[in-house]
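A student in our group prepared the protein record below, which I am reviewing. Thanks in advance; the entry in question is below.
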Amino acid sequence: MSAAALFDLPKSEALAVVSRPSGVTVLSYGLGADSTAILLMFLADPERYGLRPDLSDLVIVHAVTGDEWPDSLDYVDRLVLALLRAARVRLVQIARGGPEDADGVVVLDDSRAPRRIFAQGPWRLSDELRAAGTVPQMARGKRTCSIKFKGWCLDQWAAAEFGTSSFRRVIGYHAGEMGRANEDSRIQRELNAAAGRTICEPYYPLIHARMERAAVEAYVLGRLGERIRKSYCAQCVFSGVCASRDAHEERLRAHPYVAADVLRMEYVSQALNERQALYGEASLRSRLTLDGRNTAVLEAFTASLEQAPHAVYEVRRIYFAARTEECRQWHGSNCRAARWWCRQPRTDQCVEAHPASRFGPWCSGYDECRGVAAKGQAWRSVRTVYEGSRAEAEAYVWAMAAEHGMPLEEGEHSGIERAHYLTEGDGYPTASAYLVAAPAGVHDKQRKHFEQRFTQLTGRDGTAGTPVRELPEPKPRRLTGGAPLILRAKTIGGITLIT
């Protein structure tokens, strides 16, 4: 579809005409339909989009998460890279250097003749999730994994590449995503203001061309001759947004071993936290089980689970009581002089009988004055107490349950068996503790003062099982120094070393 308007778009910052003070345009390339369509539009008519005829002022940057679908990589390798090579367009592929920001960003490839899209870098999103024993999370309405593995890498690379020169940043929001584009523009405007200069100016060609998703896909199909698939990580918790449920499950069936890896990741996450399946309490495994077409996927998962080295994890949690509104009112953001009413709300009777003085409520905490505490922050301790095969790990859990009188219970949603020796109570603070067998690989971890707080609350000292290793010594956070650290992967004999 061309830029001809099928409808009128509302006035918006996303429609602003964007200049290029540095003379450079950077396209954030996610391998999907939207950014591929923009790339094809630039190749077809550079000058229409304010680019030089030879495209020497265009840079394509792809942030490698390490968990892209194989068919997306194959599509771009076969149909897109040849076009970039013919036009001599610069493609830069970057990835996180490690779990900490101080590990920097690794440039996997920087070429005007790219031969392949890298499947992974030194530190994948899935590496981080497996080490933590969890699935992707959203915090305060933001996709934290996307920010850490894409946005941060792109920002660091741009800071090193352009310094104080501004550039035009192109993102593939289509006309149906005006809200996302406006939010992106707002955030960038605030970042520019905080920096006291124009870091970059966002530009949304698909919105200018009034192209919604269907038009975008039709355009790519017409130019490349093959329908493009949606680009997203295989373990994305927003797969229902990235594709329909049917399309997502069809893709899983096409890649059963990718699906098995995702299911195993979800299994470990649920083993450590029953409520933390891929879609909250609803698991991918339960969805796949409802459709008889997914038998091969589930069999691949079962075989993967059986063959994987296992561990027995002792999972302990402390659930603290939440701070009350009065605590925040009188003690601000940091409560240093806690009173009983900081964690238990005062009853209406207490408020009436014991009004606040200059320094806060003066009540001593009579029974009739104490309301019900709400659930607050939770602390988790994960310790490995046994390692072996799946059968051996499960036998260890059964033996410990028999020896110490721990009730064996199956998870309501997961069906995973756990040996509980502490069950959380109705009020807060409270604690829970259990043993569970699951694939190995989760890092032992707990907060500095966890043992002290756990003992104070429960009267128990230490774990029920004997940890197979000491907790790692806490390491001071490595500082970045404020300057972006950009590393370059080494290529020897045609092999790129990225570890």
Q: What stands out?
A: The longest helix spans residues 144-162. The chain has 17 helices and 18 strands. The radius of gyration is 27 Å. Residues 1-10 have pLDDT under 50 and may be disordered.
